[in-house]
Amino acid sequence: MKKSKDANVGYAFIRFGNKEVERKLLKEKHSIEGKQAYLRIPNSQQGDRSERKVYVSYHTQDLTVDDLRNHFEKFGDVEDVFIPTPWRHFCFVTFTEKRVAQSLLGKEHTLKGVSLLIKSLSSNKEKEGDKM
Questions:
Q1: Which residues are within 8 A (CB) of 78 and not within 5 positions of it... i.e. 6 or more apart?
Q2: Where would a tag sit more exposed on the chain, N or C end, judged by fewer CB atoms within 10 A?
Q3: Cα separations in angstroms, 91 against 21, 62, 81, 94
Q4: d(CA 129, CA 81)
């Protein structure tokens, strides 16, 4: 394992021979010497991260990261779900494949009775720019 500039952070590169094993391990939690380890695929191998990430607006704080991850994994492998703190009526969901994210754009889903509106990052940035 290599050390980064931060003494508390290290990283390593792993090449998987089997994509199914890689997908399975991406979904699991890992620890090394009692510290949580995160398995990620380098952006250089996945295309532009912004094309794999969607903006999801919704109107309740009751949905958790796990709720959202479980819902969106029906459509493809989810790399990350980020809900800002404090909660601000949206989250970001990053998929491992661009095609999955692009196929969901403009769609409306319902999760636990809550409407989820899925948008691209660029359409959300354009609206933020209009407000300024």
A1: 69, 72, 93, 94, 95, 96
A2: C
A3: 28, 13, 7, 10
A4: 24
- Taking phi over 0 as left and psi of -120 to 50 as alpha, with beta for the rest, 22 belongs to alpha
Q: pTM for this structure? A: 0.65
CA 51 – CA 55 distance, rounded (Å): 11
CA distances in angstroms from 90 to 32, 59, 66, 71, 121, listed in the order given: 32, 8, 15, 15, 12
Q: What is the pLDDT of residues 31-86, one digit of tens each?
A: 888 887 777 766 555 557 778 899 999 999 999 999 999 999 999 989 889 999 99
Which tokens hold the place of 101?
A: 């994210």
Whose tokens are 């094993």? That residue is 21
How far apart (Å, rounded) are the C-alpha atoms in residues 108 and 118? 6
**How far, in Å, CA of 40 to CA of 82, rounded?**
15
In angstroms, the first-to-last Cα distance of the chain is 45
Tokens of 56: 């999801």
**d(Cα 55, Cα 18) in Å, to the nearest integer?**
31
